[in-house]
Design goal:
single chain, 557 residues, alpha+beta, Beta-Lactamase, Hypothetical protein af1432, elongated
């Protein structure tokens, strides 16, 4: 393939008369310029493609050194308060030094851009470059005037190095603000290997490279800051939902942590059936984000429903009204007894006390209500008392309905209100413009109450339509709820009982058995229990016929 120069030369008849050696000189110069431009473009594309900030910073120095044939290079990034230059990357071929980036932080003291009196620090060459935004080219730092190179000379005396030529280039972002300084040291001749001053063409190209690097760094920082903002905002919402109820505080956070840990186990597994489930770190973040958002719909759920600790509770526990009515009935019976001149306490009054004790026990919602118990409640409700000249029942219709709840404390209508939080979660999340790598957050979050057999809600979908991440979230949500000790309607279950219920839910086709196997057999259940459960809840357990012992490092179990 013909070069750009050859094609241009063929179309320029007036150049045909040039001497061959002149043509070759022009061709060499043109080819060199084209190659330099191609190299800069290649470096720019590589910088734009890198997604890891530490690797990007390393690449900036590595590519700048390679392009300019510099022995050493240092990258300084301006601090958030714009008062310091912080060492970010340090490299040197001669000293075999690689510091910063993926290799960890650098504990060197930052370069101050201002003195203690607030005056610009022009004595330090790096500070001057950042403050003035000027490229500085020094042939030999030992012969340079105007800057204080005592630190450089001390470094040389300690390491045996000889710093000579130095090039400092300001890194300007899209707003023309200097965000850092690229410092290159000891340019080496490609022919002899000797240290030489940085040539003019290299200086121009280094400036172009520094600008590309600054834009790449700025873009990545902006993306990361937006991710941090999004994460913080959504977590703040999740925390607000938890704080709505003292009984669910910490639920979302615990579910999110357990979901993230189980997701990583799935992604790391090389055995069936998870061998194909290889999650990147971004995909794990997406799954965990769904866990943070899975209860966002509860922001509209009335607190009296979420916090309903007893059957008669609404804004307050109506058991107090029932007690008051019972006292009125007992008072009326006492008045009647006294009017009739009876000495002994009326058996009817004793029966009222027994009825109240039964109502109080039923109100707790801790035991299953059978038909006989519900029949007795109806008989009690038929007892009447006089209030403002009218006869009213000891229990009104709504109180009887609530006390007759067979299991738990919620009526069917209240349970529907609770269940509706998933529909609201889906509705709210689908309105948010999640970036592409978080686009499945609404899908995963909206399935945390679906069951593999299709009996879940809100859509009643079955296993074939429930992806692995949604199944992971469902298991984390169930296990946290089983073990949580801060619910109004129950104490936290023992670990052994919680695991047994998980196994029953697997048997009934509600939860993914393979995922539950991984949760238990990996040791994650025991680790989560040691970190989260109260000491009284920790005990050994059985899973699929195998006995597991719980031994916590802090001695809790």
């Amino acid at each position: 393939m013909k070069s750009i120069f050859d094609r241009w030369y063929e179309k320029s008849p007036h150049l045909k008369g040039l001497a061959p050696e002149v043509v070759e000189e022009i061709r060499g110069f043109a080819d060199d310029q084209v190659n330099r431009i191609k190299e800069l473009v290649k470096i720019g594309m590589a910088l734009s493609a890198e997604k890891n900030l530490d690797r990007l910073l390393e690449m900036i120095v590595t590519e700048a050194r390679r392009y300019t044939n510099a022995d050493g290079g240092t990258l300084y990034i301006r601090s958030d308060d714009h008062r310091r230059l912080e060492f970010t990357i340090i490299q040197s071929d001669s000293l075999d030094v690689r510091m910063g980036g993926t290799g960890g932080g650098i504990d060197w003291k930052p370069v101050s851009l201002f003195t203690a009196d607030g005056v610009e620090n022009h004595a330090n060459v790096c500070a001057y470059c950042a403050l003035k935004g000027e490229t500085i080219n020094i042939a030999d730092v030992y012969d340079a005037d105007g800057f204080d190179f005592r630190g450089t000379k001390d470094f040389d005396s300690t390491t045996g190095y000889r710093s000579q030529s130095m090039l400092l280039v300001p890194m300007r972002d899209h707003e023309d603000e200097v965000i850092g300084v690229l410092q290159l040291l000891n340019c080496r001749s490609r022919e002899t290997g000797e240290v030489t001053p940085f040539p003019p063409q290299v200086i121009l190209d280094a400036g172009s490279l520094a600008s590309q690097a600054a834009i790449a760094v700025t873009n990545m920082r902006l993306i990361r800051e937006l991710e941090i903002l999004l994460n913080s905002f959504l977590r703040a919402i999740a925390a607000a939902i938890d704080e709505k109820s003292p009984y669910t505080s910490g639920h979302v956070e615990r579910v999110a942590e357990l979901t993230g840990e189980l997701s990583r186990l799935v992604g790391a597994s090389s055995a069936a059936p998870f061998a194909a489930e290889k999650y990147s770190e971004d995909e794990v973040k997406e799954i965990k984000m769904a866990a943070w958002m899975h209860d966002i719909g509860k922001i509209t759920t009335p607190e009296y429903v979420v916090d309903k600790a007893t059957k008669l509770e609404t804004i307050f526990d109506r058991i107090e009204l029932v007690r008051l009515r019972c006292e009125i009935v007992k008072r009326d019976l006492e008045i009647a007894r006294l009017k009739e001149g009876k000495d002994k306490k009326d058996t009817a009054a004793v029966e009222v006390e027994r009825d109240l004790a039964f109502i109080e026990k039923s109100n707790i919602g801790g035991e299953f209500m059978d038909d006989d118990s519900i029949s007795r409640l109806r008989e009690i409700a038929a007892t009447t008392l006089a209030v403002n000249g009218e006869r009213v029942g000891l229990l009104n219709d709504d109180e009887l309905k609530n006390l007759s709840i067979r299991r738990g404390t919620l009526t069917a209508d209240e349970r529907e209100i609770i269940n509706n939080h998933v529909r609201l979660t889906i509705k709210m999340l689908e309105k948010l413009p999640f970036p592409r790598k978080l686009r499945q957050v609404p899908l995963f979050a909206g399935m945390h109450h679906e069951k593999l057999d299709g009996s879940g809600y809100p859509r009643g979908i079955n296993a074939v339509d429930i992806p692995i991440p949604a199944r992971v979230l469902a298991i984390a949500d169930v296990f946290e709820a089983l073990t949580a000790a801060d619910r109004p309607y129950k104490p936290g279950k023992m670990l052994s009982e919680s695991v047994r219920i998980l196994e029953l839910m697997v048997r009934d086709g509600h939860l993914d058995g393979d995922l539950c196997d991984l949760l238990v057999e990996s040791g994650l259940v025991a680790d989560y229990a040691c970190r989260t459960l109260a000491p009284r809840q920790l005990d050994d357990f059985v899973w699929r016929g195998r006995h597991f012992k719980v031994r916590c490092r802090d001695g809790k179990g």
